[in-house]
Amino acid sequence: MAVTARKPARRPRRVTILGSTGSVGRNTLDLIERHRPAYEVEALTAYSNVELLAEQARRLCPRLAVIGDDSLYAELKEALAGTGVETAAGADGLTEAAERPSDWVMAAIVGAAGLAPTLTAVRRGTIVALANKEALVCAGAIMMAEVKAHGATLLPVDSEHNAIFQVFDFKRRESIERIILTASGGPFRELDLEAMADVTPEQAVAHPNWKMGAKISVDSATLMNKGLELIEAHHLFALPSERIDVVIHPQSVVHSLVTHVDGSVLAQLGSPDMRTPIAYALGWPDRIAAPVERLDLAAVAKLTFEAPDESRFPALPLARHALQSGDGAPTILSAANEVAVHGFLARKIGFLDIVRIVERTLERVPQAPLESLEDVRAIDSTARDVATSMVKGTA
Ligand code: NAD
Ligand code: MG
Q1: DSSP class per residue in 168-180
Q2: CA 72, CA 328: separation in Å to the nearest integer?
Q3: Is 366 helix (H, G, I), strand (E, B) or coil?
Q4: Gap from CA of 133 to ligand 1 centroid (Å)
Q5: Measured in angstroms, how far is the CA atom of residue 22 from the centroid of ligand 1?
Q6: E strands, 1-115, where?
């Protein structure tokens, strides 16, 4: 269950944003600035964009600003000299940011790099708004056990999971039959495999409906994003893979749906703007205003749905299979995908090589049960090594 404790919203709410310079991070800060007296910022973190981090720190006056890349520490320190903002760097700095006493943490680092700080925040028993789906994919059972053990509250920020969370009656789970995740289908929804072989990183990151970071945009183009979301949903809503469907919905207006035993289907709708799910999490359990374009159904005119084409988008069945295999398979899937997407963005491999490499890494890396964070780290690292050698071999 995603919610294990229902804490009253304290105002002003003290917040920490892990990954503040990214797409989700910037949208979060935009909302905080619009509701300023209601929020105070404890910590902001970024990996390498010192300039933007320093600018954000000057605007939002956090107590702490952290740069993930150690080599940029001096630059950050100098940029914030005289502001009163404390600075830190590296993995320890990220942990410190997550440890600081805030009421609410946005986990918006991309990839498995976000796992350790997100878990640190979970262990404080605080409210964690989770955008960093890879953390849940690579260590789902461990993360959910920690949420429960520490009485933390996990609020899904991924738009599909946030939609389901808004209509999912956790107290009447027996009334829920299945959930349906919608997917835009990405920029190559109608492209044949031959044409897909030649697409460029620029074409892949140009998502038709959402403005997002590079990695998730490529994942949306391969549909691996929906595969990761399937695994994410399994952990957040404690449902087996067979009770989670995926449907392509190119308009991205219906963000996801819940089917009940009486045949009723409840959905959450809205314009495709991440500030809606982020506002939901920032205000939770209340609602706060978000400056998103209001849904004009007459203007949208037509909502369409179609089944995903698994032969052109094999990432989806691959992820479903990894979820069903259990053990470390989702960890291997996600780690190999990170490496392959990075290779594609660096123009070392082609678009279709991404999922091929993930599939071959899953075949090559022996699965092992995940009982601890060390197990996760070990299997993640082996998968990265194997996938990296495949990227080099393909290049
Ligand atoms: P992004 O690439 O725009 O930003 C990533 C953030 O993480 C940046 O602040 C970056 O500095 C930080 N970061 C990157 N590598 C790091 C490392 N090794 N150590 C510490 N910090 C690091 O990504 P995004 O689009 O904002 O996505 C963030 C997360 O949210 C991803 O997991 C993504 O799947 C998820 N998500 C994003 C959207 C969206 O609309 N962008 C929607 C749903 C879910
Ligand atoms: Mg999503």
Answers
A1: --GGGGGGEEEEE
A2: 34
A3: coil
A4: 10
A5: 5
A6: 13-18, 39-46, 64-67, 86-89, 104-107
Q: Which residue out of 20, 23, 73 has the highest number of ligand 1 atoms within 8 Å of its CB and is therefore the one to mutate?
A: 23
Residue 308 and residue 247 in contact, taking contact as beta carbons nearer than 8 Å: yes
Q: Cα(158) to centroid of ligand 2, in Å?
A: 5
**What percentage of the chain reaches a pLDDT higher than 90?**
94
Give me the CATH code for the 326-395 domain, please.
Answer: 1.10.1740.10
**pLDDT tens digits, one per residue of 256-309:** 999 999 999 999 999 999 999 999 999 999 999 999 999 999 999 999 999 999
Does ligand 1 come within 6 angstroms of the Cβ of 361?
Answer: no
Mean pLDDT, the chain, as a whole number?
Answer: 96
| Four-way CATH pick for 13-156: 3.40.720.10, 3.90.1200.10, 1.10.3720.10, 3.40.50.720 | 3.40.50.720
**DSSP per-residue string spanning 225-276:** HHHHHHHHHHHHHT--GGGEEEEE-TT--EEEEEEETTS-EEEEE--S-THH
Residue 395: the pLDDT is 67
What pLDDT does 367 receive? 87
**Taking the domains of the chain in order of start, what are their residue ranges?**
13-156, 161-272+292-310, 326-395
Tell me the C-alpha distance between 307 and 317, whole Å. Answer: 13
Q: What's the confidence (pLDDT) of residue 207?
A: 85
The model's confidence at residue 5, banded by pLDDT at 50, 70 and 90, is very low
pLDDT at 211 over 90: no
